[in-house]
Amino acid sequence: MNADRHPMPNFPSDPCSSFYQFLTTQHPELLPMARWGVSPTDQRSNQLPLPNHLPAWPHGTTVLAFTYGNGVLIAGDRRATEGFQIAANRMDKVFQTDASSAMAIAGAAGPCVEMAKLFRIELEHYEKLDGKALTCEGKATRLAYMVKANFPMVMQGLVVIPLFVGYDQKREIGRLFKYDVTGGRYEDTEFHAVGSGGKDARLTLKEHFRKHLSEDKAVRLAIRALSNAAEEDVGTGGPDLRRRIFPLVKLVDDLGVRDVEETQLATICEELLSERQES
């Protein structure tokens, strides 16, 4: 093989356990912010001109998470909006990030999905180099760093707000972390919801949440909260029995990360609809 035609990549002599930091130093043009119109040069110099008119980016709307039993549930509706229009009815906003953690994201759809994929690679990269997975606390901190680095995109109107949940093997409990746009990280021991319908979902959770809910009651509460949010918020998509569109719900506990089956979701949605009609 001709070395001149195929030069070796310029890998650092001391491999970094952070894949995100590796991209930042070696290939910043591959970062989400560069792919969405913010150049690495502008980011470093803080020269971020604000556009006069922001386009109507597709946005994911409502996601929530809360603790139950010894685990934690994370869920999201399926609607994406573009201005006052529905951009998609089957958007995935809840992602498994490794064997014992998951995240959900509300905000600009494209950067949201890219951040979730990049964070999953970040955790895989660390585990391969160090031979062990990050702690639950460490994962939450790594995600906070990525959210903070996304702030230049926030100034351009591309807001990304995640929720992160994981099962802490040492403490043997599920843990929930919420973030702000500046990368601030806060742990919540009960529940939280973000997105356009986040306030309405939180009202339902505040009313019905109880410590140590059973798995079935936890799933029912998640569906109820998202359904109530859809009743009040046009950006949140409610369950659609005719087209078989249901929220995405994941459970994270000592068994790992599990998806709630569509058949179970359909049964719960039908029961909640019947309750509404009777009342």
Keywords:
single chain, 279 residues, alpha+beta, Glutamine Phosphoribosylpyrophosphate, subunit 1, domain 1, eight-stranded antiparallel β-sheet, five-stranded antiparallel β-sheet, 37% helix, 25% strand
Write structural notes for this entry.
By secondary structure, the protein is of the alpha+beta class. The protein has a single domain, classed as Aminohydrolase, N-terminal nucleophile (Ntn) domain (Glutamine Phosphoribosylpyrophosphate, subunit 1, domain 1, 4-Layer Sandwich). The protein is 37% helix and 25% strand. It has helices spanning 19-26, 32-35, 40-45, 109-130, 136-149, 151-154, 198-208, 215-232, 262-278; strands spanning 58-60, 63-68, 71-76, 80-82, 85-88, 94-98, 101-108, 160-168, 173-179, 185-188, 191-194, 248-253, 256-259. The strands form two sheets. Strands 1, 4, 5, 6, 7, 8, 9 and 10 form an eight-stranded antiparallel beta sheet that branches. A five-stranded antiparallel beta sheet has the order 11-2-3-12-13, covered by helices on one side. Helix 7 (198-208) crosses helix 8 (215-232) and helix 8 (215-232) crosses helix 9. The model is unreliable at 40-54 (pLDDT under 50).
